Amino acid sequence: MKFKIEKETRWDINKMDIVTKYYIWAGTKCLASVDNEEEALVVYDKIKSSYIDGDTVVIKEEDVEFE
After folding, report:
1. pLDDT tens string 46-63
2. Which of 30, 31, 54, 67 has the fewest other C-beta atoms within 10 Å?
């Protein structure tokens, strides 16, 4: 299994500023996105160790209802 952190930097027209997001991947699945590198490293280690220990962790789950 390949684990990685991707960094995306883009201009946010609403904030009128550059925004950086970090995406944590396990294989082909993006399991988390965070706003700073320190948090990305913590989440990365937790996800990686959960796979090594044979346990998975749900980072975020929500039901969305559209009108």
Report:
1. 988 887 766 556 777 777
2. 67
